[in-house]
């Protein structure tokens, strides 16, 4: 697969990753190389990555605990302190090997340490390959509130080696698939149609779908890097999805949802709201619900919880001037941004999902 240039970053795929990485290390003569991993990628991904890394620079490994609950400023402080104690300087490089938590948090750490050091993202989950590692968004959660603290900052390289997907459990693969489904809904009906029967999907097919997803996101981000307009469309399903994810994360009696599991619910809700407000075909909304629930377990949300989830919408990053702004669909491939939605319609959407 041909490498993709996106703003100031280059995205490489599979074997081309390591040729590009080692050439980059040779040309830039970094003083030290730091590799950020979590306990899972330390065990399953790091050995393979180190085998292919060629450099005379000192390599140090920094390991953090795995999981969204560790995507915090406290974890950043631990990594910043480790960098300081290991004598990182402005010419050091941080390589983030992991899923979305690692690439988001690692990018934020690199962008702020000594006012910014170089970093490379090596996404190892499907979600981070098609979403988190591409586009320059970095950051951490504020309590249970998703991605409230962060900056937009571009990695030197993004290295997508799809062999890492062989280390993932099925629920993590489904979590990443949710973002690919979103890319189809907001951008391209032909791409969306490829997901209607995944039973015949080969690994080669998956590589191509990942490549197409990266192209879709790259094209959006290049046109609108700071989310003033078009880039907001990438948040389809995320306004309510993030609120649901935060609600489940902050309640100990609820099973924590993976990002993609919450976004699937959010997209079903947003499809229903699109039908009610901007004329999205009702038949297509029904098809989306049926398709998604054939791939994902239904999430139990009680009526008594609707208001608490709706209250969390005020923290959504797309909000301005006190308005909660939704991304809706007029048709597949034609999103509409900055839509205002009454709470009563959101409640109707929940009831549609639960019915």
**Secondary structural class:** alpha/beta
Overall residue-averaged pLDDT value: 95
Overall CATH class of the largest domain: Mainly Alpha
The helix/strand series, from N terminus to C terminus, equals EEHEHHEHEHEHEEEHHHHHHHEEH
Task: Kindly estimate the percentage of residues that lie in beta strands according to DSSP.
Answer: 15-25%
CATH architecture of the largest domain: Up-down Bundle
Helix amount: 40-55%
Low-confidence parts lasting 5 or more residues at pLDDT below 50? none
Number of β-strand runs = 11
How many helices in DSSP terms? 14
How many domains would you count in the coordinates? 2
Termini Cα gap: 43 Å
Assigned CATH superfamily of the largest domain: Dehydroquinate synthase-like - alpha domain
Oligomer: single chain
Q: Give a quick account of the main beta sheet: strands, pairing sense, barrel closure.
A: 7 strands, mixed
Spatial arrangement of strands, main beta sheet: 1-2-9-6-5-3-4
Provide the CATH topology of the largest domain: Dehydroquinate synthase-like, alpha domain
Shape by Cα distribution: globular
Radius of gyration: 20 Å
């Amino acid at each position: 697969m041909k490498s993709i240039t996106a703003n100031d970053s280059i995205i490489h795929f599979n074997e081309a990753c390591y040729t590009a990485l080692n050439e980059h290390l040779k040309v830039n003569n970094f003083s030290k190389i730091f590799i950020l991993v979590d306990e899972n990628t330390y065990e399953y991904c790091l050995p393979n990555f180190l085998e292919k890394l060629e450099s005379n620079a000192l390599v140090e490994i920094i390991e953090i605990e795995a999981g969204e609950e560790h995507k915090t400023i406290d974890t950043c402080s631990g990594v910043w302190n480790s960098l300081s104690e290991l004598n990182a300087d402005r010419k050091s490089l941080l390589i983030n090997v992991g899923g979305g938590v690692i690439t988001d948090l690692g990018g934020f750490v690199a962008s702020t340490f000594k006012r910014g050091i170089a970093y490379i993202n090596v996404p190892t989950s499907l979600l981070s390959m098609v979403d988190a590692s591409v586009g320059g968004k970095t950051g951490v959660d504020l309590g249970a509130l998703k991605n409230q603290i962060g900056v937009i900052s571009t990695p030197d390289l993004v290295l997508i080696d799809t062999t890492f997907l062989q280390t993932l459990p099925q629920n993590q693969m489904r979590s990443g698939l949710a973002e690919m489904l979103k890319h189809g809904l907001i951008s391209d009906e032909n791409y969306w149609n490829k997901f209607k029967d995944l039973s015949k999907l080969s690994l080669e097919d998956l590589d191509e779908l990942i490549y197409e997803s990266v192209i879709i996101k790259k094209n959006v981000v290049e046109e609108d890097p700071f989310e003033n307009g078009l880039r907001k469309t990438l948040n389809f399903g995320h306004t309510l999805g993030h609120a649901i994810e935060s609600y489940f994360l902050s309640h100990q009696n609820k099973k924590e949802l993976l990002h993609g599991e919450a976004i699937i619910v959010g997209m079903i809700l947003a499809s229903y709201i699109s039908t009610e407000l901007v004329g999205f075909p009702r038949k297509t909304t029904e098809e989306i619900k049926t398709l998604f629930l054939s791939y994902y377990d239904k999430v139990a949300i009680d009526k008594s919880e609707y208001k608490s989830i709706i209250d969390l919408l005020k923290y959504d990053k797309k909000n301005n001037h006190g308005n909660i702004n939704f991304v809706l669909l007029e048709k597949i491939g034609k999103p509409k941004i900055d839509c205002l939605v009454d709470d009563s319609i959101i409640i109707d959407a929940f009831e549609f999902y639960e019915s």
